[in-house]
Amino acid sequence: MTKIDFYTGSTDKLRTACQLSHKAMQNGVRVILSTADAATTDALDKLLWHFPATAFIPHCRSDAEQAEQWPVVLNGGNDRFPHYGLLISLHNECVSFFSRFERVIEIISHDAEDSRLGRARFKFYRDRGYELSHVDLSKAP
């Protein structure tokens, strides 16, 4: 069954997604970064080329011919996934395909509306019996 991790208290959701992708990649975990719109996908794509500051995260979009060879793949709304390891969701609602993945990360900011939507997603997963964990980024060293 899919394991769901909530990272709350993010001051910059895209930067948090990059940090988590980088950590996963260093541990040999392949990542799908799923966004709700083209503008977010484009912004994340640009950020990944400069993160971390002394390197970059090798990535491509999910519709690329060789997407299955890249450690990090951006998905901007299609249903093509080259693997089902880790899904980092940057959506405001639970995506219909989340249960295909071994692990899902939901990133929640300090924004009141984003927190409300995050609580709704948490409840959705909890009510269906998924294993949940929580990391409060505002308390991280």
State the main characteristics.
alpha/beta; Rossmann fold; seven-stranded parallel β-sheet; 27% strand
Description:
This protein has a single domain (3-139), classed as Rossmann fold. Helices cover 29% and strands 27% of the residues. It has three helices and seven strands, in the order E-H-E-H-E-E-E-E-H-E. The protein has helices at 13-26, 38-48, 112-127, and strands at residues 3-10, 31-35, 59-61, 72-75, 86-90, 103-109, 131-136. It has a seven-stranded parallel beta sheet with strand order 3-4-2-5-6-1-7, with helices on both faces. It is globular.
CATH superfamily: DNA polymerase III subunit chi
Question: Do you know the CATH architecture?
Answer: 3-Layer(aba) Sandwich
Global geometry: globular
Mean pLDDT: 93
The first-level CATH class name: Alpha Beta
Instruction: Kindly identify the CATH topology.
Output: Rossmann fold
Tell me the count of domains: 1
Helix count equals 3
Helix content: 25-40%
Structural class per helix/strand content? alpha/beta
State the total count of DSSP E strands: 7
Beta-strand content: 25-35%
Quaternary organization? single chain
Q: Which helices and strands occur, and which strands form pairs?
A:
Elements: E1 3-10, H1 13-26, E2 31-35, H2 38-48, E3 59-61, E4 72-75, E5 86-90, E6 103-109, H3 112-127, E7 131-136
Parallel strand pairs: 1-6, 1-7, 2-4, 2-5, 3-4, 5-6
Summarize the structure.
The protein has helices spanning 13-26, 38-48, 112-127, and strands at residues 3-10, 31-35, 59-61, 72-75, 86-90, 103-109, 131-136. It has 141 residues and is an alpha/beta fold.
